[in-house]
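User: Round two. Same drill as before: sequence, then structure, for each protein.

Assistant: Same drill it is. First protein:
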Amino acid sequence: MCLIQSAPQDPNATWNGEYRVRQVQPLKAFRELFVLELEDCSGSREVRYRARLDEAGEPELPTVNDVVHVHITHTQASGGGWYDRVDRLEKTTPTSALRLLPPRICPEPEALRRLHEVLETEIRSEPLQRFVDRVFEDEETARAFATVPASYDCHHTEAGGLLVHSLNVLEYLRQMPMQCDLFQRECVLIAALFHDIGKVAPRVQRHKSPYWNREHALLNKLMLEDALSGLRHQDPEAWSNLHFLFDFLAGTVSGNRILESQLIIDFDRYDAGTDTRERAIATANPGDSIVVKQPSNGGSKRVFFLPSHAWKSEEQTKLAAG
């Protein structure tokens, strides 16, 4: 199955996939012809569908928000031009909640697609795939994870910043050689993705937790409680590994059991630090050599020493570059 924005557009190319129906519009000239707008995490596309007629002569159609599996041909119209024709359509139950998240819910439109492609490449264990899917099946959690900032005054402060930061940490880690086995590596990657999911707790749990927002590492397992519960029966080893990894991130156990767990913290700090530094430089006054960021959540101060070239004039910069 291909993502809808990756569908081939070569003459007479065929493709299939699972998508959500966003719109159903009749073609005025033909009673049984309709334009369907189908979407997934990569975007949306209009296709043409010839509906079957029931005994009363009414077209049998999918409805908005239905999930359908379609087979499509990119074909030429009689008057010229090309369009996507639905050859077969079946209503189905979703096989991936992440795949069907509409990108319009995320302020960073490419982030959901990037995340889907990374996980599809890196996570081979079916129980771990199902774990991720359970997390995104909770619509409120999924929307919060895709829309909230990673922090409000330090790093990735824009809407959607949490997803971007989490994806950055995941992508750093996937490029690192690891000495653990492949299964543990997949667990480490999933823990990296959700290392900050506790930050959505104030929106989703609505203060039902005894922890403060700055204690988000203690909230990670609370936000993943249902998904972890399902994993416990499907794959006890995966369940145990993820419990350990999130306990390590919360600071309640050492990282000796899976040494690669330390990499999550290292890349978390690196990605957060580089983004904070960029924002510090952007807001510094000309001539400043030091910028201090004080998180509003009571964390330690971030002190950045600005490079001298930060205040060179554009003309000086060009001269230095030769």
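Second protein:
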Amino acid sequence: SLSHTLLWVIVITGAVYGVAALASQFVGGLTLQSAMLIAFALSFSSTVCVVKVLEESGESKTRHGRLAIGILVMQDVFAVIFLVAATGKLPSVWALGLLALIPALPFIHRIINQSGHGELLPLTGFILALGGYNLFELVNIKGDLGALIFGIMLAQHEKSTELAKSLMSFKDLFLIGFFLTIGLTALPDMNMIILSLVFCLFIPLKAGLFFGLFTALRLRGRTAYLASLVLSNFSEFGLIVGALAVSLGLLANTWLVIIALAVSISFVFTSVVYRNSHSLYNKYKDAIKRFEKQTRLKEDVYPTLHNAEFLVLGMGRVGKGAFNALAKLGDVNVWGMDADRLKVKQMNSEGHNVIVGDGEDVDLWDNLDLRNVKLILLALPSIQDAINIKRQLTNAGYTGKVAAIARYEDEVQELLNHDIDKVFNFFTEAGLGFAEESLAYVDAPRA
């Protein structure tokens, strides 16, 4: 992440400075320092956009998804450090008292445990975030750092994921308000729109830098391609950096509006292009794989299936239930697959045959022995993922049966139209199973 930021700032500073010089009569010129600030602001990738895209595609736990989120975390840390340093304020002597937060961590975790799962949970999150912000401000430290520190302290809590999901809608709302505030600073004219489109021409370069660095670190071509593609947008954090530069008199309001327009356009670009990322990889995979290194990382070595007859994709509640039901048959060899390494490790420790894999990875299917597999069950929440995986299986020469789940009746028909052999309506089948189990209990002889 640091290498990408440094390379990006070096390359883009000159480009921004040149573009500003050509357009100086329309939007005002830039100093070299201001050009560096804009390049730095554009170096960030959007946490909101990337997480949203990965969650919608069900890829937040995949290899490239975890890589992208890790890069975003590092970028957010860089942004907060910059915001703290840019204010030029020295902490007061009372800042040493912040060390008391370490022994107070169990008490904070206890508060979260007592907040339940309803409205109190997001309210507790707000109190901790805003409290951390104001606590650091009291000792003359930028409040953003306080909010970040509190977030790090809560990350290891068992309810951290639930808390993050409960706050996500508020985060989206605040982001809309922030964009609205930026928009009120100046009315965009045609010159600003053109310049923002020029900035968007840097998006392929941003993706290319990420791809080059990832492949240099011996990541697989597909992982590098997907991660660099989803990280190729500009960030709302860049707007925060730009807004701070405007408040310090280092940047004109017009440039902040231009950055905001470029950020918005980049969101649209990522959402549209990433939707077709897997089909694009299938088309250009030979060209992409030429950049791979000969030696692979341990995590990128393809797993093996030993005489598997049934394969369950997705070890969530439905997938794990299907896996256990098949395993109870006794005379069949059942294997599972999931992109979450921690979940796979846990199931392996319980004695189950589960491998790490992304079902949409065509290279994975090309390297798996599927000759003995009779049935593949797609226990996935997204029907688009199921359709893509069915296509990958067909391309890999798989001739067995494929079953999938759906939540709505129209999804059932769509899956059947894409050659899925059997589709189970999740809610209908769950109700049927519940009724059958209940009737069996009623009909069972009493002791």
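The two ends are 66 Å apart (CA to CA).

User: Perfect.
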